[in-house]
Amino acid sequence: MPNQLTRRLALLDDDAHRALLAQGLRGIERETLRVDPQGRLARSAHPPQLGSALTHPQITTDYAEALLEFITPAEHDIGLTLHKLDAIHRYAYTRLGDEMLWSESMPCELPGEDEIEIANYGTSNIGMLKHVYRRGLALRYGKAMQCIAGIHYNYSLPEKLWQLLLASEGIPEERRKGLRDFQSESYIALIRNFRRYSWLLMYLFGASPALSKGFLRGREHKLETLSDDTLYLPYATSLRMSDLGYQNDAQSGLTPHENSLESYVTTLMDAVNRPYAPYQELGTKKDGEWIQLSTNVLQIENEYYSTIRPKRVIRTGERPIQALCKRGVQYIEVRCLDVDPFEPIGISVETGRFLDAFLLFCALDESPAINVAESAVHARNFARTVKEGRRPGLLLTRGDEEVSLQAWANELIERIRPVAALLDEQHNDGGVHAASLAAQQAKIDNPALTPSARVLDEVRAIGSSSAFGLRQSELHAAYFRESALMPAEMSMFDEMAQASLAEQAAIEKTPGPGFDDFVAAYNSSTLCGD
Q1: Looking at domain 25-170+178-188+221-345+451-524, does it have CATH number 1.10.443.10?
Q2: Which of 10, 20, 158, 322 has a CA positioned 20 to 30 A from the CA of residue 360?
Q3: Residues of 286-295 as b/e, b for ≥16 C-beta within 10 angstroms?
Q4: Strand stretches in 376-444, DSSP E
Q5: Three-class SS state of 181
Q6: What is the distance of C-alpha 53 from the center of its chain?
Q7: pLDDT of 80-127, one tens digit each?
Q8: CB atoms < 10 A from the CB of 471, how many?
Q9: Would you list the domain boundaries of the chain?
Q10: Residue 14 burial by CB count (10 A; 0-12/13-18/19+): exposed, middle or buried?
């Protein structure tokens, strides 16, 4: 009897079904700090020429006023997605003056905490809610941590594919769950496999082995000194994803709960409703000003930091958890990718092709439930890889045995190979997924080819992590400024910017409750309903 992966690949390789693989969607969210010509954090406000950070569909801010976030439309092919991301970058550069976009995940040299401006979204209740939420993040995690940037990869498969798999699984019709439940369970199964194997992504694409000394703000650490202003770990792949990143004690007790959508939702609903004593001591207001939305473990569910999330597009006034409860999982968001400092837009199409093959493999392969002990093992494998993934002979835990990262990575590449071949058959453009697999295989064979090793070589040569980041930022700025957008593209972005500003103005003119009442209503809207 063929295993589940083999059966599903054969089904999708049928002439009648192969086109389904072209109907899924890909979207990218790229975060990047605005910096001045010297590579210091920009102190200017979000440029109004870019539009409203509150309402613009493609250009917004994340934590800090200087931390831009570019959001592509969802496309069927990652090549087109990255073309759209490139256009957003080119437009931004026409409106940035002499500022640049920082090229790395770890921040540039940052000023004191008081001088890092939290993102502003205007005077409306929803704008103030977003701003106060970020005030809470500053209290809970510190501002420097919020200036870390990443790449988020949004991925979905078409509903017709889930319909096909549901009909083919041999489940008697009377025992079959509805499509919505099957689709949600299938995405949760994808997430479980992602937990098992995401260490591989950190080895292949981690690009933050070093950081500026000032980032740690005097925190204890076990990093080594590379130069006067730079700390590193010699075999690290991604310090961004290590315990130096977005972590705190309140979240440490939250576990992924990836065995069902119900348990995931229940865990997050509990966290946004459960008081946490240190936050209670701070309160929600100081001198009459809001300083955080609540004193619970999480202010809102998006505060839960995870390497991957189940997602559903939300409707106006709806919370993410409510959308998942009511309509199930629609796509997943991969959140562990570092910005690639060698790529002007922060990610290459080759990386995207591999991610598509990797995520489809995770979706199609068998994915048993994960118990608490196994979850801890997966977390430990991930942690080892981000801190010492290039260490010769590094061992990871698989079941009851210790295996070398290299051997396990080779096995995974072989298991993903038929998935890549199927995508290439459907894609009909010269084996681009197989070529991406070959590029990743070369990194497994030779760790010096990984982005983290290449970054470390450059930082050593130049003598400073900040100097390397500035050099790459200058190269990327020149790249974008040398080639203008077409007039029609410029007009489209200009119109989006103006429409977003008009939309924010309309929101601010619309009567609403007082902010205290608005927050109370928002905080009470965490339960799932029909």
Answers
A1: no
A2: 322
A3: eeeebebbbb
A4: 395-398, 401-404
A5: helix
A6: 19
A7: 999 999 999 999 999 999 999 999 999 999 999 999 999 999 999 999
A8: 16
A9: 25-170+178-188+221-345+451-524
A10: exposed
